[in-house]
Amino acid sequence: MPPDPRDRPDACPGAVDVHQAADGGLARIRVPGGTVSAARVDVLRSAAIELGDGFLELTSRANVQIRGLAPGAEHELGARLAEAGLLPSMTHERVRNIVAAPLEDNQALVDAIDAALCADPALASLPGRFLVTVGGAVSGLSGDVGLVGDALFLAGRDSGLRVTDPVDAVVTAARLFQEIRGDAWRLSEVDGGVRKITTALGDPGDVRIEPGVTPVAPGAHGDVFVAGVPLGRWDARLLAGVPVRITPWRSLVVPSGSDTRCLFTSPDSPWHGVSACTGSPGCAKSLADVRSDASRWIDARTAPGRVHWSGCARRCGRPAGDVVEFVATGDGYEEIR
Ligand code: SF4
């Protein structure tokens, strides 16, 4: 894959600053911590049905996308989101990327970090790719800044620093990254970046916590239920009036007893572990309708494991780790193991 050109700002879409895809406008709505109240779920559902293509797409950062917007529809979408409190900052909306461990009680901390990031004008120009992680289960998702208890993570690893004010530590690290980043979009791209921030913040200890990624499996988890969303496409007619927490693994934490029709509810489901890029008709570069092809393949699936489908050699959204890939060639698919 060719490197991203750095002679322009990153092109991450926002809720109002939409990306023009082959199937219309694409809006990405940040929901820090993945938590969405029932009332806001209904605002998103209605917007997807009335302004978009009828689906809410879940991203690997536990955000939501609405695609298929007609020209100008982003203004109506922005007005609806603002009224619902889903657009608290027009200046910072693309930098509110905070992924949290979905089964931990950390939303108050996430909200405090979000508010502090949005309150600092200097952070409005952070790259849209900047990511904060909160909690051990997501500490290995390559956040630029992260928290696991009082441990401060930088560029996806434990810095050795232990903090007493986690909100201040995250915002201070974000400011320092902004000062040293040049044209870099991620802290890991800055030569000596972690060392510069660590040096500015204090003396790191010797103990290091290993970063981890602990996906939550579909099924019951105490008094909540995790429902998988096939290929990350949530049919917006579903889950009316249900509060959700979106996970970075394209699933939804919902109250036990919620109606989970058309979602998958067991790790034994053939949908479990299968992902796909946008493909046709949403991506102009695609050589195939990968979602339709993946859906047909799932009907006959025989073995478990992680599988990713891509519409071209860019292989967008390929998960890290052990994964079987099907990459469209224009004349079928190449299987990569
Ligand atoms: S992998 Fe190719 S087809 Fe799929 S979203 Fe990326 S650019 Fe488009």
What layout of secondary structure does this protein have?
Elements: E1 19-21, E2 24-29, E3 35-36, H1 38-51, E4 55-58, E5 64-69, H2 73-83, E6 98-100, H3 107-119, E7 132-134, E8 145-148, E9 151-154, E10 157-162, H4 166-180, H5 193-201, E11 219-221, E12 224-228, E13 233-235, E14 244-246, E15 251-255, E16 274-276, H6 290-299, E17 307-310, E18 324-328, E19 333-336
Parallel strand pairs: 6-7, 7-8, 16-17, 17-18
Antiparallel strand pairs: 1-2, 2-5, 3-14, 4-5, 4-13, 8-9, 9-10, 11-12, 12-15, 14-15, 18-19
Helix pairs in contact: 1-2, 3-4, 4-5
Iron/sulfur cluster (SF4) is lined by residues 277-279, 283, 285-286, 310-312, 314-316.
Question: How does this model look, in words?
Answer:
The protein is of the alpha+beta class and 337 residues long. It has 6 helices and 19 strands. A hairpin with a 4-residue loop joins β18 and β19. The model has no long low-confidence stretch (mean pLDDT 93). Bound molecules: iron/sulfur cluster (SF4). Iron/sulfur cluster binds next to loops.
